[in-house]
Amino acid sequence: MACRLEGKVAIITGAAGGIGEATARIFTSHGALVVIADIKDELGARVVASIGPEKCQYKRCDVRNEKEVEELVDFTIKAYGRLDIMFSNAGMSEKATSTILDMDFDVLDNVMAVNFRGVAATIKHAARAMVASGARGSIICTASIAVTKGGFGPAAYTASKLAVVGLVRSAAAELGRHGIRANCISPGGVATPLTMEYFGLTQSQVEERAETGMVLKGGGTLKASDIGEAALFLASDESAFVTGQNLIVDGGRTVGATPAAPAAQVK
């Protein structure tokens, strides 16, 4: 297997489980050195032990705290000498039962602090390090298919992810002169522990709902590793001229309704 990230150094936030963990495994399998950032210390340590401490390290980071994000970037550069990839993946949601009519503004503030302010901090400090070193870096941020239309997620979550898309487009426009790319990935329904917790669904329920809405059939269930493969593409030199984009990975769920099967041709 070709090592598509050989010699590159990456930070992945929210990497103690779910999409972040799957991406860390894919990145390291392709030659990258990875710093796994999260607030779940025990799970993060387990991921490092599973992948191998020669390939990755864990650093606690609450993305709501800009100082901790700055320290995360500094830690990475001290550990590995450079930073090439920032995958800003940490996120949260309010409960699926939340509505605009009973919105809790403390919850709204926390969702925005993690999903938007935290992403802004990771972009800011990763980009500063990349500019200082002259790295032609790649910044990737997790958005959501909720940004495509109302109803795919609770209001606060949807608003925060739509803000991320706008932020990334602005970052791409500003950072292009430095050779730095910025893109989003918008996953469809992936049965991560976070998704199951916030939406009160089992793994099979999440997968069933996601698969039912897909127009692309025959490929099985959308997995965290599928999002990780999309991140691999955006992190690698194969996407050297891709910037300012929102890559939707949802099996065509947001394309539209599944068309009816064509009638059998009469011979």
UniProtKB/TrEMBL annotation:
Family: Belongs to the short-chain dehydrogenases/reductases (SDR) family.
Protein name: Short-chain dehydrogenase reductase 3b
Organism placement in taxonomy: Eukaryota, Viridiplantae, Streptophyta, Embryophyta, Tracheophyta
